[in-house]
Amino acid sequence: MAREAGALVRDGRPEHVEVAATKSSAVDVVTAMDAESEALLRRVIARERPDDAILGEEEGASAGTSGLTWVIDPIDGTVNYLYSVASYAISVAVVAGPPDPAEWTVLAGAVHSIVDGRTWTAGLGAGATLDGEPVAVNPAGPLATSLVGTGFGYDADRRRHQAQVLVDVLPQVRDIRRLGSAAIDLCLVATGSLDLYYERGLNPWDLAAGALVAQEAGARVTGLRGRAAGVEMTVAGAPQAVSDLVVILEAAGADSDGNR
Ligand code: IPD
Question: Which of 32, 186, 187, 238 is least enclosed by beta carbons within 10 angstroms?
Fold first, then answer.
């Protein structure tokens, strides 16, 4: 399903992509393809799993009766899609439990990177794969030699504080990458192309599939101050490396938006 939607997004890309609408701020954009890709994913789910609920980035929640919910991001990395920067993906996860993401169990997930065609998959307790081959996170090393991915929100005040957090993180790590798709970032942790990743403000559709891929590849995926990963903060990487980064992020108040 993720590959089918990926083919639609890849083959249907016009030469000049237009912004169809904006959401939380002028820089939080939607294209016509976001809606088309979500419509395709919803059609497949409705055909194959008519009793399941769906939570999608563009159309929101539709109810089901099975207790399972498909959590879908039709293009994760929409700004990259807009500018033809190669990191954008379809993210699909299926979760069990009540509608509150804090109480979900993510059962399976797939992240399909549209431009290079790579697909990561994971099943709870069944490991993670990239194009069918098992993957594993890098062993924890010192922060000073760790490559760290992150991302920024769409709100100016949040970004101001995120820039301040970066002032504390950047001098202590090998380098920072802001690649523009949270789902792919989490998969890059799973495959060892990033040692660590952190971001505040992720929505369930950005996070669900990639977090399971990272976790099943041996990552610890967590929030700060003993809380679970989620909208407040998500940190992923080898367990000891995550513990080291968490100390810096907690001290910097990275799970807040600072003093507005
Ligand atoms: C965004 C991307 C980006 C992250 C943002 C997300 P979208 O998702 O994952 O990397 O920094 O927080 O909202 O809007 O392109 O689906």
Answer: 32
- Who's near 84: CB < 8 A, 6+ residues apart? 13, 17
- pTM for the whole structure: 0.96
Question: What interface predicted TM-score (ipTM) does this complex get?
Answer: 0.95
| Alpha helical stretches, state H, the chain | 2-11, 32-48, 78-83, 156-169, 182-191, 204-216, 239-252
pLDDT tens, N- to C-terminus, the chain (260 residues):
999 999 999 998 888 888 888 888 888 888 899 999 999 999 999 999 999 999 999 999 999 999 999 999 999 999 999 999 999 999 999 999 987 888 899 999 999 999 999 999 999 999 999 999 999 999 999 999 999 999 999 999 999 999 999 999 999 999 999 999 999 999 999 999 999 999 999 999 999 999 999 999 999 999 999 999 999 999 999 999 999 999 999 999 999 998 75
| Ranges of CATH 3.30.540.10 domains, the chain | 1-134
* Topology, domain 143-252: D-Maltodextrin-Binding Protein; domain 2 (3.40.190)
As annotated, the residues of the chain forming the CATH 3.40.190.80 domain(s) are 143-252
52 known member of a binding site: no
Q: Using the mean position of ligand 1's atoms as its centre, give its distance from the Cα of residue 157 in Å.
A: 17
- Top CATH class of 1-134 equals alpha beta
Q: How far is ligand 1, taken at its centre, from the CA of residue 231, in Å?
A: 12
